């Protein structure tokens, strides 16, 4: 840090170095146009220009990894917070933004508090939110619920009733894309949060692998097993995927009644079955679990994505100035127009202009009121734990391991 | 007596000639060796070095001696992956070889229809593995794929991809579907090399088609079979894309074969040192099998099946 400051100081002292370029890596998908517009606007008034590099989605993580170890590392880069930046934090490659944000009104008050902390590590902040929020929600088929005269589940008993009712009618209660593995993770995340509260996973995320030994984890795994044995996900879920549209199609064709999925499910459905998305797609929060200590208002999923700053950058001030524009009204509006729900504190009033104002508002309120927003485990943990975790969860869901074996395997993961 | 000498000399010349004539000197191999060194030997050496290090892709690899290797031999996941690779390879070989052999011999006939059909067989080989894997993934979707309709007729559970053995068989089948045409072509080429006179002679001696097949075609195709089998086995051992796209190693870890375990360890877990150890082990096993097959089949001595023709 001191080194970087000295270097930057020397640079500007030498003259001519107050102009230049910083590179920003971004995950290359449809939303890049929003970031590109922000960069263009920023560059109009800044001497140091930002150059946006869009890396195709599937290559992003590997490309970033190799670039960070090379002299051509980006100055600013897109990430998921948590475990996705842990290796860079450990190798002291990232700027600790905690005090910068504390002393900067725009950044401090600009974003929802649960979002700001969710991407951090051990109480420190390394990133500024830069995209929409993606909480996991329980989606359901309104028509099926109306036909069978039941309400979307709010409690675990409601959920049991719904499972029994739909099973009797030959409808799979929950669509689940088990062959992709990560949709199974969502069940674990919500159940653990409801049963044991967010602290259980927080401890694990902060590096205590023995945290998997918490009784709430075993209880979670057992609950999952009960759901599977009960036929809540049907029989085929191991060979159904999300990516190619398997699980979403089950929901929109009325073959499954509910689907636990990230908020992107809405745009997925809008793309696949627009009529269904507009008329029959309902959404609600994950139900409470009897005896659980977690606040039912808690949310899991991807809070948002973040920009982090490389500690080796020659233009730290420019980088921070660029991050500040993420809190602007203009940027939030661009996200709304793209169908995203911004994580900025003043976004509520803009959501009427969203493609589906009701959905956007519900989502925003859900996150705004959430006491805690747990980052998806596979993003929250470092790859060395996240990959075995996905494997072990897949084994648990496939019936290859017992809940007890799952706990033991996770405690032993290293 | 004097007229015997030239014969003897000629005989001696011929012996020397076997080593020289038609077999180019070492210098000819230099470009190939260089190319091989840069793109195969050097990366392999780096992988072997990495297998003695721990490295997460950031900074420099840190040597840890034999840690990765001792872990490899204790790792039940590695053991399972090695076993699955072996099973997949065996299934692939047993399933592909007879079909490719029979099709190849049949296609070696010179009728126009055969040339045309051979061209059609070749099509799966022209498609990328990714496209094939995605195609079968869609066909085998338990809720919306063709399998839902025709599966029950054939006695196949539509959720075949969700069961352990089912998923492995599907992977073997898709691989077979893709590569069988290639092996068919190899056998077709081999069968066309068999001199007509052998068959003519056999016919005169009264041998029927079946006897001709077992006594002429099969023995004559011995080296072709070795070539094809080595390619098939090494191919199955390094099989990867189909697993990545169709099963992601699942359900659970039931299709996590060695190359997929290596990929997961290296590029998802970023445990690159251990992944290098897995990769090195795979290279050793594949090379060992190839050498063994070449040795056992007598392929190494390079005797021509046409000697004496």
TrEMBL record, chain A:
InterPro entries: Bact_solute-bd_prot1, SBP. Gene3D superfamilies: Periplasmic binding protein-like II. This is Extracellular solute-binding protein. It comes from Streptomyces glycanivorans.
Automatic annotation (TrEMBL), chain B:
Residues 82-293 form the ABC transmembrane type-1 domain. The chain crosses the membrane at residues 33-52, 81-108, 115-139, 159-179, 230-252, 272-294. CDD domains: TM_PBP2. It is a multi-pass membrane protein. Keywords: Cell membrane, Membrane, Transmembrane, Transmembrane helix, Transport. Belongs to the binding-protein-dependent transport system permease family. This is Sugar ABC transporter permease.
